Amino acid sequence: MDEKKAATLRSALPAAFFDADAKLAHERRLEITNLQITAQTIDRANERLDAFRMGVASRWVNKTNVGLPETWQLFLYSKDANDRAKLLQSRADVPENESDISLLEVADAFARAKDADKIIEQAAANRQIPILIERIEKRDSGGNYALERSVRVALVEQLNFVYMEASALSEGRLPFRKAEIPAAGRFFGKNKALVVLDESGQEIEQSARRLEELREQATQAPLELNLETVDASRLSPITRRNLIKIMNGEGTFEELQAFDPASAQMILDARRGR
Q1: Residue 185 CB partners (closer than 8 Å, separation 6+)
Q2: Helix axes of 115-137 and 149-169: crossing angle, nearest 10 degrees
Q3: For the packed helices 42-64 and 98-112, what is the interaxial angle rounded to 10 degrees?
Q4: Domain containing 243: what range?
């Protein structure tokens, strides 16, 4: 089936179908984050992770009616491809081949996509980060790492994909991070502590306090929504009440987007200075 015909079929499907699919995908994201991996099951776990990422990419195809899942997967999870897409989008360079053209189409489609879709996906990715770090750094009662080095390395690879996705979804507002476990030395233990680097290659401190900060950030909305940041005069009475509920902690923006996406989008469209 060619891309034009596929897009026509997707546009004919009810939006509720994709909303339900998105909810299921968020549940799968949590399952993937807590996937139990052993040295013997790393390959199978990686296959499940690849399938999950392809599912995320397919959902963006459904949301935008643009591109193929493989191109979206590159855009979301490959820093080189994402950087290339941004360069092409800025018109600082021109497409050199079909791959460049496809990347540019996806980048433009992502820029046009609803803010609500980006925010919900980013919030879901952010929640994965502290969970994965905690699993990688977990120690037993003797102070040794609970997981073998090979398993920890597999989890670090998963963490790096999440770092990339979160940065892409934030459109660069969230800086890219890279995690690694240093190579084993000849005279010291093979299972070394996790290291997280910023975009300049500088190490970011990892501590219990830092992990707690990440947990707190993961429970917060990716943007501040209140009467100072949102022009309430542009909201319907029902949406205005929804905003006040979010401000009072009676619900979350993610819940509103799931149950009333039109109201969630109205709030985003009414933000000041956007």
Answers
A1: none
A2: 160
A3: 70
A4: 223-274
